Amino acid sequence: MNKVLLQGEGIETYYGKIQALKGIDFQVNEGEIATVIGSNGAGKSTLMMTIFGTPRARAGRIVFDGQDITQMPTYEIAHLGLAQSPEGRRIFPRMTVLENLQMGATVNALRNVAEDLPKVFRLFPRLEERQSQRAGTLSGGEQQMLAIGRAMMARPRLLLLDEPSLGLAPIIVKQIFDAIRMLNREEGLTVLLVEQNANHALKLAHRAYVMVNGKITLSGTGQELLKRPEVRAAYLEGGH
């Protein structure tokens, strides 16, 4: 059985006096894809940001590879081997594609750029074609590929993906999810995925959670949740 790589116990997060996460428990085992699905405003992105320490959890604890990271500074969390492709991509628009990818490798003091760039280009050939282009001029799908590629340049042990399919055409969404599957199968990369596109996410995930109003309301394997009538009604059959 694979060991637990990331675990959250009783996480509570607030924005001022408003409680966004209400006692969240979850775990991600090494080598698996875990997903959190839920509608807009359920607290999914807040969970991702809390794992990285911005905002901080006011209660509960987050443990990565046996180490409590709840109060750790974000840059230290990154050095432990977590990397994030955030919601909205947040690439550096004035920098070139290549410079954006190099920024991802700064966590490792740029030691592995020559070795890792070809891996990213194999995953997303479009980025190789566009490497000298300013990132802000890329299409939405290309920017999402760049955000994932930049995170991969940090050589993460755990990749956090926040809404990677948001606003993208179906054909690009398929490419993105195929890439995530390939990274998991071929590199053994552990992935925590937050997604509104429940159908894609649950088909991909080994472990899945449903979040509603800051609470985990259901958990199981991706296949189990795909079959749950309440999940189908809320998220798959004309839902979100």
Description:
With 240 residues, this protein is α/β, with parallel strands linked by helices. The chain has 10 helices and 10 strands. A 6-stranded mixed beta sheet has the order 6-7-8-3-9-10, sandwiched between helices. A 4-stranded antiparallel beta sheet has the order 2-1-4-5, covered by helices on one side. α3 runs parallel beside α6. The longest helix is centred in the C-terminal third of the chain and has 18 residues, at 170-187. The two termini are 34 Å apart. The mean pLDDT is 92.
Secondary structure: elements and pairs:
Layout lengths: L3 E12 L2 E12 L3 E5 L6 H8 L7 E6 L2 E2 L5 H7 L1 E4 L11 H8 L8 H11 L1 H5 L10 H13 L5 E5 L7 H18 L2 E6 L2 H7 L2 E6 L2 E6 L1 H6 L1 H8 L4
Parallel strand pairs: 3-8, 3-9, 6-7, 7-8
Antiparallel strand pairs: 1-2, 1-4, 4-5, 9-10
Helix pairs in contact: 3-6
The CATH topology of the largest domain turns out to be Rossmann fold
- Helix/sheet category: alpha/beta
Structural shape: globular
The unreliable regions are none
Order of helices and strands: EEEHEEHEHHHHEHEHEEHH
Using only CA atoms, what is the Rg? 17 Å
Q: What's the number of domains?
A: 2
Largest sheet descriptor: 6 strands, mixed
Distance between the termini: 34 Å
Corresponding CATH architecture of the largest domain: 3-Layer(aba) Sandwich
Name of the top-level CATH class of the largest domain = Alpha Beta
